[in-house]
Write a structure and sequence with these properties.
single chain; 160 residues; alpha+beta; five-stranded antiparallel sheet; 5 helices; 5 strands; disordered N terminus; disordered C terminus
Length: 160
């Protein structure tokens, strides 16, 4: 992957916030070095990973789990996004606030996916957006929406 200077701003806080990135496909092994690929992401804070996935109901699509252990995806890397002073209870309240925006039946591979969720959470906790390469394929898909099969555009993930 083409490298450039880190754009992560130094944020004040005592708790690290990590973005955990997973491969959705084995093609990422090659595409990653070109700055492309299909990725899932989750935000790790206070020893819990929070992510967003789709389902057919109007309840939240936000789920939590063990860091770096998201079923169905291959863990690629953890990226330190910054630091926060938000308490575990404060993070829970943030997830409750975001639950309305990130309902399971609003998931869209191109316009509202796990990476959009992770970006919102990272900005709220650290002030830093996620690296652009993580959701680049969705941005390209937005430009080429007419050629993406409808079943891919509305992919739902199974939450256990």
């Amino acid at each position: 992957m083409l490298c450039r200077r880190s754009s992560i701003q130094c944020s004040h806080g005592s708790v690290p916030v990590y973005l955990n990135v997973y491969d959705l496909t084995c093609i990422n092994g090659y595409a990653y070095w070109l700055g492309l690929g299909a990725y899932h992401s989750g935000v790790q804070v206070h020893g819990v990973e929070y992510a967003f996935g789709g389902h057919e109901y109007s309840t939240t699509g936000i789920f939590e789990g063990e860091p770096k252990q998201c079923d169905g995806f291959t863990f690629r890397k953890s990226i330190l996004m910054g630091w926060t002073d938000v308490s575990p209870g404060g993070v829970r309240r943030l997830m409750e606030e975001l639950a309305q925006k990130y309902r399971g039946n609003t998931y869209n591979l191109i316009t509202k996916n796990c990476n959009h969720f992770s970006n919102d959470v990272c900005i709220k906790l650290t002030g830093n957006p996620i690296p652009s390469w993580i959701n680049r394929l969705a941005r390209l898909g937005l430009l080429c929406n007419c050629i993406i099969p409808e079943n891919l555009n509305s992919t739902k993930v199974c939450l256990h």
